[in-house]
Design goal:
Blueprint (H helix, E strand, L loop, with lengths): L1 H23 L3 E8 L9 E7 L2 E4 L9 E8 L7 E9 L2 E6 L5 E7 L4 H4 L3 H11 L5 E17 L2 E18 L16 E9 L8 E10 L3 E9 L4 E11 L2 E11 L4 E10 L8 E5 L11
Parallel strand pairs: 2-9
Antiparallel strand pairs: 1-4, 2-3, 4-7, 5-6, 5-8, 8-9, 10-11, 11-14, 12-13, 12-15, 13-14, 15-16
């Protein structure tokens, strides 16, 4: 009888040990993150101005709000007494954290990047302007190192840490430090008007339709832009404006033809200029007997 009790107790101890080993093996399975790249992202910009013989960071008080997407997953299994926490760092500065992640966490989040983070690369921004700055404005890229660190503990004991890194691309703007020159040869071209529309205004099934972008500038010159589709696809293109219609302008067009019902939208964003259009719909109804609606 005592033998049976001993064997039962031993079996229970083995079972508990096995369960503990199984739970402790529940490790972090996947850690991913990236900074969102699009023309609309509010990435950090160092505005550098030449004052009293040196480059000065002029917009130090401004905060930027770019977006980041992350994904954290754990292996399936027992999670009792397991704790998974995460920290987001940029240039070694903590900018966000997560506590007690359960099984999976995947989100698109907006960051708040201020001078407390950016000051770590102030010297690099100044060095970029020392090397490339001059009489005219110059823009250079500057990488800010980001890191996602995920830590797993079991009964308070550290089990595993997984780290992933990515680079956020900031901009350094070295404003011209030379004397201001006058005359038309030094006046920068500016975008003063941008439109996007369809021809015809009411597209028809099986008939060609053009999406037309119209650019107006203060003087002749090249304008680069991004042509976006509603699902995120984009195309980079450019036009060169010339005199006409009482100013300087140029049209750019893309032709489509749809044989089935279609509901899309498009947008144009200028590169290097302040200018973008609203989302413009392109709708075609190919249902038999239906009237097509405005695009």
């Amino acid at each position: 009888m005592r033998n049976k009790i001993f064997k039962s107790a031993l079996a229970a101890i083995v079972l508990v040990s096995a369960l503990g080993a199984t739970q402790a093996s529940a490790k972090i399975k996947e850690v991913k993150f990236h900074f969102v790249k699009s023309a609309y992202e509010d990435y950090p910009v160092y505005e550098m101005k030449f004052q009293n013989g040196k480059w000065v960071w002029a917009n130090k008080g401004r905060a930027f709000k770019p977006r980041m997407k992350y994904r954290i997953r754990q292996n399936k299994g027992g999670i009792a007494h397991h704790v998974v926490d995460a920290e987001f760092l940029l240039e070694g500065v903590l900018i966000g954290s997560l506590s007690h992640i359960k099984n999976k966490s995947e989100k698109l989040v907006t960051l708040n990047i201020g001078s407390n983070v950016m000051k770590g690369q102030e010297k690099a921004a100044r060095a970029a302007c020392n090397a490339h700055g001059g009489g005219q404005k110059v823009v250079r890229d500057l990488g800010l190192k980001g890191q996602l660190s995920v830590k797993h503990t079991h009964f308070g004991k550290h089990e595993q840490t997984v780290k992933r890194s990515s680079v956020m691309t900031a901009k350094v703007v070295c404003h011209g430090k030379g004397p201001k020159r006058t005359g038309n040869s030094t006046v920068a071209m500016k975008l003063k008007g941008l439109k996007l529309y369809t021809i015809p205004a009411r597209p028809k099934c099986g008939k060609p339709v053009k999406m037309v972008a119209e650019f107006h500038t203060t003087r002749p010159g090249k304008v680069e832009f991004l042509y976006y589709r509603g699902d995120g696809e984009k195309q980079k293109a450019s036009v060169t404006t010339s005199r006409g219609g009482g100013g300087f302008s140029k049209r750019w067009a893309k032709t489509y033809k749809f044989n089935k019902t279609t509901n899309r939208k498009y947008k144009v964003v200028a590169i290097g200029h302040k200018g973008s259009t609203q989302w413009i719909p392109l709708k075609v109804n190919c249902t038999k007997g239906a009237k097509n609606f405005a695009g």
